[in-house]
Each structure stands twice: as C-alpha cells, then as structure tokens.
Write a structure and sequence with these properties.
It is found in: Cytoplasm. This protein has 183 residues and is α+β, with helices and mostly antiparallel strands. Bound molecules: adenosine-5'-triphosphate and magnesium ion.
Length: 183
C-alpha cells in the first residue's frame, strides 16, 4: 500500500482544488508556520474516518470546511480524496485485486459525511473495515506524530498489544469476532 496522491477541495485552508502527488519514496512538505502542513495530515486522518473534531484540531466536524478569509467567503462543502497504490494486495475482500484504491469523504455544513470507495458511495464502516489490520486508519501507526513514540514507550502492556495486533494484521479478525459475538 502506498499513498500516491491527495486531492483536497474546501478542506481547512485548501479552499481551491489542490493535488498533492507523492511520486517518490520520500516526500517532505515544508513551509512557514500556519501554511497548512498539518492540515494535510488532518486530511488523511479525516478521510480514513476520524470522527473526533478534537483530533483534527477543531471544535466541531464542520470546522474542517473552509471558513473564509479576509479575501474569500466561507464555502459549504469540504472534500478530500486519497489515492492508494495497492500493488502488494495488502487489502482483503473485493478490493484485494484493485491496483488503485480511491477513498473519498465529503462533509457539508449540516455535518453530514459521505464516503466513497473507488467512486461508489459507501459507509464509514466499509472504509475502516477495509484498512483495519493494514496499519492505516484514523488512529493507526502509519501516522506518527509528535508524542506518538513516547506514548508507545509509556503505554501499558494491554495498549501495546493493540499496536502489535494491528501490525500483525489480526485486529480485523478480532473485530469480526467481536461483532459476531455481539449479534
Ligand atoms: P506549523 O508550522 O505552525 O505547524 P502548519 O503549516 O502545520 O503550521 P496548519 O496548522 O496546517 O499549519 O495550518 C493552520 C492554518 O490553517 C491557519 O492559518 C488556519 O487559519 C487555517 N485553517 C484551519 N482551519 C481552517 C478553516 N476551516 N478554514 C480556513 N482556514 C483554516
Ligand atoms: Mg503544524
């Protein structure tokens, strides 16, 4: 799994449609304070299903929608699309054979979120299920932020186990068992 491109429109400071390509093994995003670097990571976590506004550095979910500047009026919809290369077939189920996976989320001012997988409308759960056990998810280890390493080092054995189970790819089976048992 490799993130190939991020497309943003109306998300936080990215009011105009913006494409960020990741064509090389290593890509650095640099710029002055407040230019929107962290907003790019917020966008990735948001598409993957982050449902806590606080984790996206806002008070409510609609805070991710461009809320205007001195020169521009606020807009009503935010959308982000992530395009992944799925060459190693890390995903399970019907998407295993797709070479490219597009995951998209939109939100409007009524706080309604819409999710799409390869252009088809889907549920948030379809996206979280798809990436479970791949290390990619709103709170997964693919995104290592300031403080993540120390949290890992200081975590209790039970918390550490959650990371290890995700890395080993078994968390999706545990989740399925939990769902079955709760039925
Ligand atoms: P630093 O180097 O300080 O970490 P950064 O490049 O990570 O900065 P971000 O935190 O990504 O910067 O971006 C902050 C900017 O995004 C601020 O200027 C803020 O006004 C703008 N911003 C955040 N949410 C919105 C929104 N909903 N509408 C418009 N602008 C927004
Ligand atoms: Mg930042």
């Amino acid at each position: 799994m490799r993130l190939k491109q991020i497309k943003l429109a109306g998300f936080k400071s990215f009011v105009d449609p913006t494409k960020i390509p990741f064509d090389h093994a290593l890509t650095a995003i640099i710029g002055p304070n407040g230019c929107g670097k962290s907003n790019v990571i917020d966008a990735v976590r948001w598409v993957l299903g982050e449902s806590s506004a606080k984790n996206l550095r806002g008070d409510s979910m609609t805070d991710v929608i461009f809320n205007g500047s001195t020169a521009r009026k606020p807009i009503s919809v935010a959308g982000v699309e992530l395009i992944f290369e799925n060459l190693q077939g890390r995903l399970s189920g019907q998407y295993a054979s797709y070479e490219e996976i597009s995951v998209k989320r939109q939100v409007n001012r009524d706080s309604e979120s819409f999710y799409f997988l390869n252009g088809q409308k889907c549920r948030r759960k379809d996206i979280t299920d798809l990436f479970m056990g791949t290390g990619l998810g709103p709170r997964s280890y693919a995104i290592i932020e300031q403080g993540t390493i120390s949290r890992l080092i200081e975590s209790k054995p039970q918390e550490l186990r959650v990371f290890i189970e995700e890395a080993a790819g078994i968390s999706r089976y545990k989740e399925r068992r939990r769902e079955t048992e709760n039925r």
